[in-house]
Specification:
- This protein has 216 residues and is mostly helical.
- It folds into two domains: 7-26 and 140-202, Endonuclease Iii, domain 2 (Orthogonal Bundle); 35-136, Hypothetical protein, domain 2 (Endonuclease III, domain 1), CATH 1.10.340.30.
- Helices cover 54% and strands 0% of the residues.
- The protein has helices spanning 12-22, 35-44, 50-63, 67-71, 75-82, 88-106, 114-117, 125-136, 145-153, 162-172, 178-191.
- The longest helix is centred in the middle third of the chain and has 19 residues, at 88-106.
- The radius of gyration is 19 Å and the shape is elongated.
- The structure holds iron/sulfur cluster.
């Protein structure tokens, strides 16, 4: 397809249909066995990678399996367990405060609504959406750096504001597709539509992407 034939605004339906061929079953890459673990692992994943977080969480959750245990942890012990994830001092304090808040306000349980989740220490809208979508199966769209980049390159939004991008994406797909659709956009950004050198020549969206570049 010549540049002039390329759609300026491909539909999200078409994008997701094509991505479903390359990313059949979009799965969370954070390894967790319950919602508490997912919440803590997602907080730890800030400025880190899921792969790195997966290397520290088995020992962390063996030692502190729930909010009660983590709320009584010493900062030094938690720091030593999560050190590879970066910013470990701040994160150690954050997840202990998070566990204390879960204990004090939610009987040690993770709340299952956005309003309460975003009141927890270290939890913003993206983390809350991850927990809703992947912990509880409640339709939500976590907007991270990959989803922002891919959405802008595909003209699904013109905004740089994560909350506005979330609203723009929600408007363009049925609620039943929010979890799988946003996961596919995220994984596409992580492995194909890379920040510095997107792999346009091997991209399944090459023919419909307004940002296709023949030079990368
Ligand atoms: S064609 Fe290139 S810019 Fe467009 S989605 Fe694919 S990798 Fe990203």
């Amino acid at each position: 397809m010549k540049g002039s034939d390329r759609p300026r605004h491909p539909s999200l339906d078409l994008i997701l249909e094509k991505l479903s061929g390359s990313i059949g079953n979009p799965r969370m890459e954070l390894e967790c066995s319950n919602v508490f673990e997912l919440l803590v692992a997602t907080v730890l994943s800030a400025q880190s990678t899921d792969r790195t977080v997966n290397t520290v969480t088995p020992a962390l959750f063996r030692t502190f399996p729930d909010a009660r245990a983590l709320s009584g942890a010493s900062v030094a012990e938690v720091e030593s367990l999560i050190r590879p994830t970066g910013f470990f001092r701040r994160k150690a304090e954050q997840i202990i405060r998070l566990a204390i808040t879960l204990q004090e306000r939610f009987s040690g349980m993770v709340p299952r609504n956005m309003e309460d989740l975003v009141t927890l220490p270290g939890v913003g809208r993206k983390t809350a959406s991850v927990v809703l979508a992947h912990g509880f199966g409640i339709p939500a769209i976590p907007v991270d750096t990959h989803v922002i980049r891919v959405s802008r390159r595909l003209s699904l939004t013109v905004s740089e504001d994560p909350e506005q991008i979330e609203a723009d994406l929600k408007r363009q797909m049925p609620e039943s597709s929010w979890i799988s659709g946003s996961s596919r956009l995220l994984l596409h950004g992580r492995y194909v539509c890379l920040a510095k050198k997107p792999l346009c020549h091997s991209c399944v969206l090459a023919k419909i992407c307004p940002s296709f570049s023949p030079h990368v």
